[in-house]
Write a structure and sequence with these properties.
The chain is an alpha+beta fold. It contains nine helices and seven strands, in the order αααααβααββαβββαβ. The chain has helices at residues 3-18, 25-40, 44-121, 125-189, 200-217, 231-238, 240-257, 281-296, 324-340; strands spanning 221-228, 263-268, 271-277, 299-302, 305-308, 311-317, 346-349.
Length: 350
């Protein structure tokens, strides 16, 4: 007996939760099919199957991302290992060349010393010429070998450095690609897929940032909560696709209506929040009134029936020793006061 009442509420809650998720490729296509099914069929069995399918997609997506991260780390480790080995080989080669150079220098010094002593012992010009000729020829060969060894070492070192640079460039490119992928995922994780506005997670980040700034500098800061009036009746009367379209149109209008310094996000369902820094309650009344009138003026038409959508707005200002939750609760209470007193109005609560 509870199923007819319970299932639509579960379906709406499930749709709200799915608005926080974003996938790629085949998972994205499958996810959209599941969302469409949820909006059309409220049977508990269908919703249960949808939940299981969504969990499978999430697990698949997490597994894929884990595999990508593991492959990236493997590539990093492999490149670092290769660089380390190349460096060790280069050091070992330099040591060996150093030993050879030291031996050559000793040989050259010995031959020069022998040349000096043997020339002193030479008794004739012919013997002197023969000694000098032999020693100089041997010295020339040693010096030539030394030059070839130095040249080979320089070329080997240059090739090693080039190889290391190529590996480092490859690693940098792969790291850059992975950073871009992470940045894109982070962007998607902070964006509401239906309205393209920042989502609840993005709001939590922004309000924490503004709250810290408020505590440091004590500048004025206001929080606004907006709710679409009678939104459930739009879904019930015209279907969830009409509800989705309404959310998209209103989100776009809200985004264009807020000031450049303001931050707007979809909080969940048909509720939006606006963070308004450097503003007190008195200064935000006119901008909020403009937003209310802008939304009310948007023409909606579903199934050949004209419809006017309105919003209720509650707002509060941060005070010394306030917490974020306390200010939100005040703004939320102001919103409910606006709804209970007739809707399509603004209530500001200190």
């Amino acid at each position: 007996s509870e199923q007819p009442q319970l299932a639509p509420n579960l379906a709406q809650e499930l749709l709200n939760l799915t608005s926080e998720l974003a996938f790629e490729g085949l998972n994205a296509l499958e996810f959209e099919k599941i969302k469409a099914l949820i909006s059309q069929d409220f049977k508990l069995e269908v919703l249960l199957d949808a939940c299981i399918s969504i969990i499978r997609i999430i697990i698949s997506s997490i597994s894929k991302e884990r595999d990508t991260a593991q492959q990236f780390l493997l590539n990093v480790n492999e490149t670092l290992t290769l660089l380390h080995q190349t460096l060790l080989d280069s050091v070992q080669r330099s040591k060996e060349v150093g030993h050879k150079m030291a031996d050559l220098n000793k040989k050259i010094e010995l031959k020069i010393s022998q040349l000096s002593s043997e020339t002193e012992e030479a008794s004739t010009i012919d013997s002197l010429k023969m000694i000098v000729g032999q020693k100089l020829e041997a010295l020339t060969l040693d010096i030539k070998f030394k030059e070839d060894l130095e040249l080979s070492e320089r070329e080997s070192l240059a090739n090693t450095l080039k190889e290391m640079q190529n590996k480092i460039n490859s690693l940098e490119n792969e790291t850059s690609d992975y950073k871009e992928r992470l940045a894109e995922q982070r962007f998607k994780s902070l964006q509401d897929t239906l309205t393209k506005l920042p989502n609840r997670a993005a709001y939590d980040e922004r309000i924490a940032l503004e709250f810290n700034t408020f505590n440091r500098s004590n500048h004025d800061l206001c929080l606004v909560v907006i709710d679409i009036d009678h939104f459930k009746s739009v879904n019930d009367t015209f279907g969830h696709s009409a509800g989705d379209k309404t959310l998209q149109v209103l989100a776009n209008a809200l985004k264009k209506s807020v000031r450049v310094t303001d931050f707007i996000a979809r909080f969940g369902g048909e509720e939006f929040v606006i963070v308004m820094p450097n503003s007190d309650l008195k200064s935000i009344e006119a901008p909020l009134e403009k937003i209310r009138k802008t939304i009310k003026a948007i023409p909606f038409k579903f199934k050949n029936k004209n419809l006017r959508i309105t919003i209720s707005i509650g707002a509060s200002q941060f005070k010394t020793n306030d917490s974020i939750v306390e200010v939100f609760d005040r703004a939320d209470a102001a919103l409910y006061e606006a709804k209970n007193s007739g809707r399509d109005r603004i209530i500001l609560k200190k």
